[in-house]
Specification:
Strand content: under 5%
Family: Belongs to the 4-toluene sulfonate uptake permease (TSUP) (TC 2.A.102) family.
Largest sheet: none
Shape: globular
Radius of gyration: 17 Å
Helix content: over 70%
Structural class: mainly alpha
Number of strands: 0
Distance between the termini: 28 Å
Protein name: Probable membrane transporter protein
Membrane topology: Multi-pass membrane protein
InterPro entries: TM_pro_TauE-like, TSUP
Subcellular location: Cell membrane
């Protein structure tokens, strides 16, 4: 690997760590960077999942304040995320991705709309008799995260933002930890069975660690509504890109 490619991977990792810890859109940056570095799509997807563990580690340190007192909640959601992450990883190994990827843009748009209209959606969700199980939504998002992962953070952030009344930075930090668990179990499966490019994963992961370490501090200082709108707009842009990309 030449020096230019190595620098691209580290810089891409920093950008992915920032966008992942702030918005759940790490793969918007990291996956294209791996493709630009010359990895084929399946290897890039698996390498990306492994590298994003750096983002989880950085977020856990940078968001210590928001994560205080959230241990039991994260543990409960993480158990669901483990099952979903394993299922998603096995799904990628056993099935072609074309059919599943067709629904990805629609899911991303749905997550973006939930973030944009969170108050109205939360009011509907909290009405008696209308509350779908949070565990099912988390499991399905974890399956998707283990399978492909682009904007899985946006989907999980949207679900958690509706299900709980709390400061947005807390929801964002919990999202990072739960999604990180789903990524971890998928990464273990890929490490044992898939074509992970370890040098690329290490460089990208180092950048992710740096970027995600600083991301929670920026979330803490950014007004909630503009941040939610910015995340939703970025997600809609990603959906449009995926719709128009062969």
């Amino acid at each position: 690997m030449d020096l230019g490619t190595a620098a691209l991977l580290v810089a891409g990792g920093v950008g992915a760590g920032l966008t992942g810890s702030m918005a759940g859109l790490a793969s918007l940056v990291s996956y294209p960077v791996l493709l630009a570095a010359g990895l084929p799509p399946v290897a890039a997807n698996m390498t990306n999942t492994v590298a994003l563990m750096g983002s989880t580690a950085g977020s856990s340190v940078g968001a210590r304040r928001e994560l205080h007192g959230q241990g039991r909640r994260i543990a409960g959601l993480s158990g669901i995320a483990v099952a979903g992450g394993v299922a998603g990883a096995l799904l990628l190994l056993w099935t072609p991705s074309e059919a599943f990827e067709r629904i990805v843009p629609g899911l991303i748009v749905l997550g973006a709309l939930v973030l944009l209209f969170r108050t109205a959606v939360r009011d509907w969700y909290l009405r008696p008799g209308r509350r779908p199980p949070l565990s099912l939504a988390v499991f399905l998002i974890a399956v998707y995260g283990g399978y492909f992962g682009a904007a899985a953070g946006v989907l999980l952030l949207a679900v958690l933002a509706v299900a709980a009344t709390e400061p947005f930075p807390v929801t964002n930090a919990v999202k990072s930890m739960v999604l990180g668990v789903a990524n971890l179990v998928a990464a273990v499966v890929y490490a044992l069975t898939g074509p992970v490019h370890w040098a690329a994963a290490a460089l990208l992961g180092a950048g992710c660690l740096i970027g995600s370490w600083t991301g929670p501090a920026l979330v803490r200082r950014t007004p909630e509504r503009p941040l939610r709108v910015a995340i939703a707009v970025a997600a809609l842009g990603l959906a449009a890109y995926l719709w128009t990309t062969p």
